[in-house]
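Researcher: Quick sanity check before group meeting.
Model: Go ahead. Protein one:
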Amino acid sequence: KYYASLILWKKEQIDQAKELILACGEEPGFFPFYLSKAKLFKENKTLVKASLEKAKAINPDNWRVNLALVDQYINDKNYTLAAKTAKKSYLKNKDLSIMGMRYASALLKEKKHKQSLDFLENFEVIPFEGATEGREIYNQAAISLAFNELKKGKFKVAIQYVEKAKLWPKNLGAGKPFNPDERLENAILVYCYEQLNNKGEAA
């Protein structure tokens, strides 16, 4: 029944797939069943939570189980638990760059911008085409830190963070494009230099 439900799911016969999944009842030692169930019934938060907890109980160290949990925690805006789970899983297997990325993202959403930036500065992503997520999180964290310093009137520190935001660190797996959009970063720099009465740099 389980494999038949996957075939129906693949054919986008969702209602029939759900019926077969539910007809399977419990599959005590097979965590992929519960991951599938959670994904298929993604609109049912209660069922998703129960399915992911069951998968975790069966195989607590499996990275796919923990990734599904982290994504669900982020979806529920439980960023603290998402960060904690992602960090624990990442530290057990540092080859899982996707889990490190989730950790940095959860920290950013938790408004722990400095922790997110510090982590990404020492985080290694294997380069691949379209690998921009790490750099995007890095940029957002640096910009957020710059704004925090602006509010405190610390314009020189804000400039330092904006200059970081303009970087494309090699360790994050994304090369700098030919003509990146840096209008926001430059606008903040202009404002900071104006406040410091440095009209030459502002110009």
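Researcher: Fine. The other one?
Model: Protein two, sequence then structure:
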Amino acid sequence: MAGYLFGIKDLDDLIGGVKEGTNLMLIGPPMSGKDDLVNAIIFNGLKEGDSSIIVSTRETGERVLDWFSDNGLDVDSSDLGVVDCVTKTLGIPTSDDNHIKRASSPVDLTGIGVRIGQFFEEYLVVKKAPGMRFCINSLSTILMYCNLQTLFRFLHVFTGRIKASNSLGIFIVEDEMHDTQTIATLKQLFDGMIEIKETESGHSVRVVGITPKPTPWYDFEIDGSNVTIGKPE
């Protein structure tokens, strides 16, 4: 029995779930549903009692939490933490709360790391959550502000922490924003990939590295937290 299910029946049936301590790259073009897909995976875990941490480099913490509230999650009673890397860059005066901790910017890797560590301590050590789902959305934004070597060292620490804590890590990358060498370097940190591509009818998804062979490409649609998988190509 695998440690984590995506909560997307057809994909879960196909790959049999994801073992504990797995780190995945989620890569696809802009406007391809990456954010909603990873949110749905986190949402489905929260419903099963997992805790989750989202590092948001593009949206404020409040907007991230709004997505979950709008889809019917009782955020106040959920172990969902957001490391907000946006609000302070906008000059908005605000403070931290139970669900949002704020870093100064997407390039503040030290501050981001400290806040991630605080949530890890709260959820896994103090509350002893049965599972942890962790996401950085996105690595591409961070790479706009720092070099690849610095990001690689930062990620090496946290992918290691994912493995050691038997958690599930998903790290979003914007396809076509980076050269092949950058992608190849980042891939070294991950156990597999969730790939999204554009098609004539919309977008397709497949999973690579979790099973001996990549899954087929499947058309998919997302309506809030519900992900519908179509027939394979």
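Researcher: One line on it for the slide.
Model: The radius of gyration is 17 Å.
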